[in-house]
User: Fold this.
Amino acid sequence: MVGTVIFYLIVGTIVGLLGKFFAPGDKDNIPLWLTILCGIGGMLIGGVIYRAFGGNGSAGLDWVQGIVTVLTAVVLVVIASTLAGRRHSAV
Assistant:
């Protein structure tokens, strides 16, 4: 259980940072904790999308699933950045 949480925090951080890196435009207006949440969300939602389209995983590192999770994190980072930008500009 603790190992799973640590895994999701570490890999979620990496996926979130990759999502932030590949997101179009300037996405530096979201804090690190929100980037990590986008990465974890990308892992969870991306895994569901991957399996919905017939992905069954593979032994070792599954590159296709990794690409799907990063692309999902990109979308989540763009959404979070848009919402955070609107909230800050309204103040």
